[in-house]
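Thread: "does anyone have the structure for this chain?"

Original post by V.I.:
We have the sequence but no experimental structure in hand. Need at least a predicted one for the grant figures.
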Amino acid sequence: MHDLHPPKGTVGITSDGLNLAGICILFVDDDPDACALARRIFEEHKTKVFIALSAREGLDILRDQRPDIIVSDIGMPDQDGYELMRQIRKLPEKEGGAIPAIALTAFARPEDRKQAFSVGYQKHLAKPVEPHELLTAIATLASTSRKRPDA
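Reply from O.Q.:
Generated one for you, tokens below.
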């Protein structure tokens, strides 16, 4: 089973009223199937998406691309999503240290949610997540971050 899954009877989600055109997303997950599905969903919404299969790869992309939003799995080998976010939050803001981020994880207990927020994620979504829920969270964070004077 995939961690992201389209609603039954829906091939693409394009008529949901969300306008994500032009948003740049960094999606970090060690599951290639989840990454492929995320790419398809994000591209259907006219976003620019960068896929990283590890925290290290995500940091490299962040340094080169400066996405608007980061969506990261927590449970990854070598370096988990908590450590990834700790490293990102140590960066100066102009180098991506303040980019809004969503934890997308199977770790869904209240203490997992609290830990995600404590390391710098703004949203915590439990897997499996409906695409509309993820897209709405992205739209919310993107609109909030674009209202900041420094964004």
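V.I.: this helps a lot. The longest strand covers residues 24-28.
O.Q.: and The beta strands are 24-28, 48-52, 69-73, 101-105, 123-126.
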